[in-house]
Input
Amino acid sequence: MRLTSLMCLLFSSTLFAASPSVGLILPRGGQRGTEIELTFQGGNLSDAQEVLVYYPGITVRSIASVKPNEVKAKVAIAPDCRLGEHAFRVRTASGVSDLRTFWVGALPVLDEREPNSSFETAQPISKNVTVHGMITNEDVDYFVVECVKGERLSIEIEGMRLGTIFFDPTIAICNEAKAELAVADDAFITGQDGGASIVVPADGRYFVQVRETAYGGNGSSYYRLHVGNFPRPTAVIPAGGRPGETVEFRFLGDPLGEIKQKIKLPTSNLTMVRVHAQTDQGIHAAGIEIRVNDLPPLVESANASSLKAAAAVTIPSAFHGTLQAPGEIDYVRFKATKGQVIDLTCYARRIGSALDPVMNLDLLDKDGNPARGIQGNDDSGGSSDAAMRVTIPEDGDYALRVYDHLRGGGPNFFYRIELRPPESTAVLRVPHVDSNNRRNQDRQTWSVPKGGRIAVPMLVRRDGWNGPATLALDDLPPGVTATIDAIDFGTPTVPVILEAKADAAMAAKLMRPRLVPKEGPAVPSPPDVVDVELSAGRNNTTYHKLPTDRIAVAVAEAVPFRIEVIEPKVPLVQGGSMQLRIVATRDPSFKGPITVQPVIGLPGVGINGATTIPENATECLVPISAAGNAAPRKWRQAFSATANAGAGNLHTGSQLFTLEVAPPFVTLAQQRTAVEQGANTVVVCKVTTATPFTGKAKATLVGLPPKVTAEPIEFDSGTAEIAFQVKTDATSPRGKHKPFVQLEIVKDGEIIPHNLGGGELRIDAPRVKKTAAAAPKPTTAAPKPLSRLEQLRQEQEEREKAAAKPPEPKKP
Amino acid sequence: MLHRMPCPGSPLSRRHFLQVGAVGGLGLTLGDAFRLQAADPARKASAESIIHIFLPGGMAHQESWDPKPLAPVEYRGEMAAISTKLDGMQLNECLKQTAQVADKITVVRSMTHGEAAHERGVHNMFTGYRPSPALIFPSFGAVVSHELGVRNNLPPYVAVPSIVANDAGSGYLSSAYGPFSLGADPASNGFQVKDLTLPGDVSPDRFANRRQMLDAVNEHFQKAEKSDKLDAMDTFYQRAYGLISSEKARLAFDINKEEAKLRDEYGRNAAGQRFLMARRLVEAGVRFVTCHFGGWDYHNSISQNTKRSLPQFDQGFAALIRDLAARGMLEKTLVMVSSEFGRTPKINGTAGRDHWPKVFSVVLAGGGIKAGSVYGRSDMTAAEPDEDALTVEDLAHTVYHCLGIEPEKKLMSPGDRPIDIVRNGKTRKELLA
Output
């Protein structure tokens, strides 16, 4: 035992720990107001130091690494903790794990107990509990609960939303006669997770059934089933409000009727907030998501379904309504002036409404009747919700028509329409490294090695503004500094360099990046900087994700290698290439291969995706090429480096460096040439010098077929024409070949390779010399055999000729 | 009514009895196989047999037969090109041994079709037809089986180790023309083709008893009804018994009879041993052997993946060509290396390449094909055929031409609809020796 421990110590001293991972947190949820122990399952967790908590309401009391692949943490969930999904990461000495979720509920939690796979063996439960269970293949779980007539029995499940695996649950309430009283597969407010509520028809025992929709399931198909008297509305009016405001909401769709409730909206930067209906009987577990922003909210009057009587709104504002009955059309009227740009955005499906909205904007005549249609939209931005940006064609009254795509309607067809001038927004995103598997969270956190640096990419997009901006990373861990260049408009991805001091303390921050315009008003910080996708179905379709606005940045232990890019002194010319030199320094203990990769892609510039610095070597050359139409400009680029130093991949990065794309120094017009096999010829190229150079340029004709040679040519700046002496032999392949010129110009001691010219070289067979002896003799060609049709025609013609012949004169 | 009750009598059906093990996943019984003997192989052929090496998943032409060392890095990829024995022909750096037999093969760099989905690409390359919802076409092997029939008591079409897709089956032809699958990998220890031995619990005596029982039944039928078919059936059974009890047949399938040195030369891996098995079967008389190797669908990290898989192929393929040549078999054995499609000209975001049927490469050798040549050309970035684009119809036409099968011949599909073996193809004379 002692020997093992000693060996472990010795072994670990030569191994560098690597990126930790977490695949699952158990249990999948807990009750607020309690303290529970969470188990984080994953890999490389033996040096765990901290659990990072994303949202307020959960406090980590203690943390213990029990196995290399398991960490246990005691957490306290505050009594007022927000209901729903919470997120954690584990920080170890070497980095930060994947983001995984944990669900907070209001009800006490009990575990499912098998056998409960039939009505007869149903697990008895009391009302108002959350069951934590699992569905294995073809498993059906039954629970039985005693109810009294007239009370509300609600069930709601978290399955797909737990984000563990693709698990689509179906739940049902059955009576003692095993008849289904309510069944729920999917719901608008909870997606693939359903919910149902009934008013209990008679005293007695009621069964709750849980299964996978297609009777699938496996050891990862966890669920949390809420069973109780809690309200379960399916719509809310208004579906939005202003931050900090106390709004009286009308919750609709509950079997016991409408619930009115005042809720104070938060003042955070969140634009989507869940509101939970609450009564004496309990609180709705899922809640309904609404929009929170500064737009003045208006609620539909009774007249909205009549164009003439519809209320006029001012811009900006937010309009809330419901399409109460099938076929109903709601109207929103407003005045607008010519040239005014208005964003009209409908929130319906996105916030759990049954409505698939279609919006049409009409210009009204002086009598208030539609004069002409201006613009319409059904779906936008990958969502079923309609949105459009309208440039108003003339001053006047306008009416926005809203209806369901399938002309449906009902109490849960609620919506919010935002009418506002275009807003300046920014998108910042840590890109996924594996586009084929978006659930892969590799490199979604930034772990900076002590005394080292990392180079990471950041996607940048502006909407509604342009011009230069800077990326602000305000809340980095102490001892970490960031280097980012100003970001020009049109740059899709920028490299970010983060460096940590050698004595920086091991710590992590959940840092919220901002894009700051150099001029003009500030833009809101983007809500989905890290796009964590959790459950995916077939074809990698995402079924549940948790975008977050914060990046986990940590100071990690030092890594045993560093890289530096030798910045090229010469430009990369359009259509040309270069070899970029990258130099590594290694700690004496580390000899393994290091893979270097460019941090960002540059438009029109091809850079070798992954180049390896071999074992024990200290440098490599990375091939780079530019397209003929690559934009001539200076780019800022960096390389990241990855190596396995024992227990997994470690990362570091280069400095930022400049890569300039420039037009070629010279251009060549290569003339078309033809030659006979065995003969020699000259390939002539007209030279145009755009940038004078010193010394000799060396030109080589490449792409020649075998058995064809041409000596390289050297020429000076300003030379007007060069000619390659091309030699062929009798076996040189006939046909059209496409050689081109590789040109090397030396500047500042570095070579600038050009690829120029390009033209046809045709190799023909030698012409046959005519000699008297070889003069062709006239030959009599054999008559071509006639087809049956031709024979018939010939016979017919002969018959006709015979018939047409004048009769021989009678002999006197 | 739809659910027929199983016969309550003997579980050993007449058909099952003849299968003796599990002859072929597609229900090819040896009895079926020998019905093929009646075919007339009299047509003049430059190839007597064919070894079809299929590389599933879509092998990148850039990282194999058609490197583009002069193209920009995002097109040429990371891998280097090497010179070969054939002046001017370059191959991927992993094809070192193949480079030494380049003078014996023809690389076609202008293969083209329009199907970028795996199953559709496989269909094209196994049948010479675009997939049709109306008809399932027979594979090359099945047509060969149908047209040329049995030789030396061996099944005419064998899949090593198994069929890679249903497109390699018999299509609208009877399943009798489908491939005989080995069902085990020749590279594995203890490899044995189970179909050729009696099931463990059946002793030779018991087998003889069963045979007598069947003979008695057959005799009854023959007395009751006079029919050529019945006579023929009897003959097929006799031949099947012959193969099952034939030492020679068993030897053809016993790779352990190859010299250890030769097995090492081919490579003790899936590629080498499958190719060696193919050579052994062809030598014994099998007309068409299809073997598949690897999975080449490298959407990610194409260089690393190629470096892992291609050397095995290289060793086995070069050894096969050398071995066939040394035995004097290359002249009469057509070797075809093909894949579903090629891969995209540009390296993608995950350092791989995606599906690209517009241009890719196939390799032909022996059996009347020109030795040491490159046919066709792709453009500068291996994106489109530049010269002599070769269609699947023309490839099929050329292969059937070499095998002495009339490509324009019509075979009867269900509903008595005659279907050309190859539609609208022509033999590319430039490929022929």
Summary: The longest helix of chain A spans residues 788-804. The interface with chain B takes residues 434-436, 577, 601, 606-611, 623-627, 702-703, 705-707, 733, 735-736, 738, 740 of chain A (CB under 8 Å).
